C-alpha cells in the first residue's frame, strides 16, 4: 500500500515530473538515518497484485508507481524494471503503468547533480510514492518529503528542430511519504 499519492487531473500523458526529496528513514525502527537514495544495500522486489516489482532497488530509497483508474490486479503485470541495468543516475526515465521505479532524491547524484526527469505514461491518473523498506513492513521510522514539479510538453505549431518545448507549470505538489508501508510486504 502506498504511503502517499497524487491523483486526478494533475497527471496527464506527455507530462514529465521532477522531484525534490528530503528526509531520512529507518527500516527497522532505529533513528532514521537513510537518505532518499537509500543506504547502499540493494534488493529485488517481487511482483504483487498486478504491480511489477523491480530489481536493483536500494534499501530504504524513495520509489514511485504510476497507475490508471483501474484496479491493478485486474490486468497482467508488466515486466519489472532492473535498476542494476538502468542505474540510479539516469537523466530521464519513462516507467510504464504499474512498474515500480526508483526516484531517490530526484537528482543524478546523491545530494548533488541535476534534476532527473520522469515521463508520465499514457493513461496514468495516479502516482503513488513509498519507501522501499528492506524487510518487515511494521517496524519503520522516519519520513520522506517530496515536492513534485510537473512539466507539460507542448508541440510547436510549426516544424522546427525544437518541435517539443517544455513549460514549467506553476503547479507544485508537496506530499509526505511515511515509512509505515512498503511495496514488498
Ligand atoms: Ca521494515
Ligand atoms: Ca539520486
Q: What key attributes describe this structure?
A:
binds calcium ion; 4-stranded antiparallel β-sheet; 12 strands; 185 residues; 41% strand; 5-stranded mixed β-sheet; mainly beta; 1 helix
What is this entry, summarized?
The protein is mostly beta strands and 185 residues long.
Strand-helix topology:
Layout: E1 4-7, E2 16-26, E3 42-45, E4 54-58, E5 62-67, E6 81-82, H1 83-86, E7 92-93, E8 101-102, E9 117-119, E10 126-131, E11 141-155, E12 164-178
Parallel strand pairs: 4-6, 7-9
Antiparallel strand pairs: 1-10, 2-9, 2-11, 3-4, 5-8, 5-10, 11-12
Can you tell me about this structure?
- With 185 residues, this protein is an all-beta fold.
- It has one domain (4-178).
- The protein is 2% helix and 41% strand.
- The chain contains 1 helix and 12 strands; from the N terminus they run E-E-E-E-E-E-H-E-E-E-E-E-E.
- It starts with a strand and ends in a 7-residue tail after the last strand.
- It binds calcium ion (CA) (2 copies).
- One calcium ion binds at residues 27-28, 133-137, 139-140.
Residue fraction in strands: 35-45%
Detail the poorly predicted runs: 155-185
In which range does the helix fraction lie?
A: under 10%
Mean pLDDT: 82
Instruction: Give the C-alpha Rg.
Output: 16 Å
Shape: globular
What's the N-to-C terminus distance? 9 Å
Biggest pleated sheet: 5 strands, mixed
**Molecules bound to protein:** calcium ion
Domains (count):
1
Strand order of the largest sheet: 7-9-2-11-12
Structural class: mainly beta
**What string, H for helix and E for strand, traces the elements in order?**
EEEEEEHEEEEEE
- According to DSSP, the number of beta strands is 12
Helix tally? 1
Amino acid at each position: 500500500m502506498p504511503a502517499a499519492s497524487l491523483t486526478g487531473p494533475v497527471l496527464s500523458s506527455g507530462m514529465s515530473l521532477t522531484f525534490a526529496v528530503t528526509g531520512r528513514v529507518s527500516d527497522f525502527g532505529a533513528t532514521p538515518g537513510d537518505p532518499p537514495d537509500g543506504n547502499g544495500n540493494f534488493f529485488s522486489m517481487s511482483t504483487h497484485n498486478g504491480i511489477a516489482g523491480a530489481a536493483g532497488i536500494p534499501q530504504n530509497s524513495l520509489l514511485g508507481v504510476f497507475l490508471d483508474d483501474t484496479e491493478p490486479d485486474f490486468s497482467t503485470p508488466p515486466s519489472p524494471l532492473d535498476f542494476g541495468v538502468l542505474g540510479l543516475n539516469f537523466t530521464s526515465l519513462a516507467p510504464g503503468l504499474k512498474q515500480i521505479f526508483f526516484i531517490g532524491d530526484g537528482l543524478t547524484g546523491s545530494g548533488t547533480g541535476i534534476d532527473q526527469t520522469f515521463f508520465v505514461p499514457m493513461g496514468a491518473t495516479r502516482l503513488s510514492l513509498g519507501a522501499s523498506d528492506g524487510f518487515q513492513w511494521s517496524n519503520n521510522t522516519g519520513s520522506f518529503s517530496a515536492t513534485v514539479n510537473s512539466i507539460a510538453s507542448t508541440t510547436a505549431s510549426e516544424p522546427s528542430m525544437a518541435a517539443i518545448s517544455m513549460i514549467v507549470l506553476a503547479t507544485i505538489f508537496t506530499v509526505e511519504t511515511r515509512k509505515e508501508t512498503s511495496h514488498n510486504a
